[in-house]
TrEMBL record:
<dbReference type="GO" id="GO:0051539">
    <property type="term" value="F:4 iron, 4 sulfur cluster binding"/>
</dbReference>
<dbReference type="Pfam" id="PF13237">
    <property type="entry name" value="Fer4_10"/>
</dbReference>
<keyword id="KW-0411">Iron-sulfur</keyword>
<dbReference type="InterPro" id="IPR017896">
    <property type="entry name" value="4Fe4S_Fe-S-bd"/>
</dbReference>
<keyword id="KW-0249">Electron transport</keyword>
<dbReference type="Pfam" id="PF12801">
    <property type="entry name" value="Fer4_5"/>
</dbReference>
<feature type="domain" description="4Fe-4S ferredoxin-type">
    <location>
        <begin position="153"/>
        <end position="183"/>
    </location>
</feature>
<protein>
    <recommendedName>
        <fullName>4Fe-4S ferredoxin-type domain-containing protein</fullName>
    </recommendedName>
</protein>
<feature type="transmembrane region" description="Helical">
    <location>
        <begin position="36"/>
        <end position="57"/>
    </location>
</feature>
<keyword id="KW-0813">Transport</keyword>
<dbReference type="InterPro" id="IPR051684">
    <property type="entry name" value="Electron_Trans/Redox"/>
</dbReference>
<keyword id="KW-0472">Membrane</keyword>
<keyword id="KW-1133">Transmembrane helix</keyword>
<keyword id="KW-0479">Metal-binding</keyword>
<dbReference type="GO" id="GO:0005886">
    <property type="term" value="C:plasma membrane"/>
</dbReference>
<dbReference type="GO" id="GO:0046872">
    <property type="term" value="F:metal ion binding"/>
</dbReference>
<keyword id="KW-0812">Transmembrane</keyword>
Length: 212
């Protein structure tokens, strides 16, 4: 339990620090530094999974208060429309994002591309469930989902101990947990955001981060 709390608070601190850094870079005009941070996140995800998503990404951090407001209000967000349930959209978003950066660099236009992506992400979180942006529309997620395929570490369910209660599935923001025979759960590595919410919610502590 102490470990779970430690991870929970460490993640909050990490998210606040990186959110502050992000807006600091926007404010000072050094947004290209964020590309370096993202690059480190991609390299890290080749080995350790998508810590960038769960611990660094400002879009994911902004989803926290939105989720809290919805939880308090007892209202539900919309499900992902079927037209958006296609992997191709995040690649389209990535191309649009890169084109935006190149256009700004070549024309000298003062367009805050990074901030626009964050605001679009937050806009989707305001209306749709978290999965919509994370899984289908995030340009960063497109790259990270490929890189994290190679990761040798991630969140794993101990199948022999899982009691099939489904609490992990209820909290997973990216619908990454699937049900196997006998109600045992399994985490799909490449879409896992390393947010540890499943680990926090498991009543029998059978979800651990380790070698997959
Ligand atoms: S499987 Fe767990 S760590 Fe991965 S995204 Fe879902 S809740 Fe987060
Ligand atoms: S919360 Fe834990 S016990 Fe329940 S289904 Fe998920 S992994 Fe299994």
């Amino acid at each position: 339990m102490a470990d779970k709390k430690g991870v929970y608070y460490s993640r909050i601190v990490s998210q606040i620090i990186f959110l502050t850094v992000f807006f600091g870079l926007i404010w000072t005009g050094f947004t290209q530094v964020w590309l370096v941070i993202f690059g480190v996140g991609v390299i890290g995800s080749l080995f350790f999974g998508r810590f960038y998503c769960g611990w660094v990404c400002p879009i994911n951090t902004l989803s926290r208060p939105i989720k809290w407001v919805y939880k308090k209000s007892g209202k539900n967000r919309l499900k992902t429309p079927s037209i958006l349930r296609k992997n191709v959209w995040r690649w389209v978003a990535l191309i649009a994002f890169i084109s935006g950066i190149v256009y700004v660099k070549t024309t000298g236009l003062r367009l805050p591309v990074f901030l626009i992506v964050v605001l679009i992400g937050a806009g989707f979180f305001l209306v749709f469930g978290e999965e919509t942006f994370h899984k289908y529309l995030c340009p960063y997620g497109a790259i990270l989902s490929v890189a994290s395929k190679f990761a040798r570490y991630g969140l794993i369910v101990d199948k022999s101990e899982c009691i099939g209660c489904g609490k992990c599935q209820e909290v997973c923001p990216n619908n990454t947990i699937i049900t196997l025979d006998s109600d045992v759960r399994y985490i799909e590595d490449r879409e896992c955001l390393n947010c540890f919410r499943c680990e926090e919610s498991c009543p029998v502590d059978v979800i651990k981060y380790g070698k997959t």
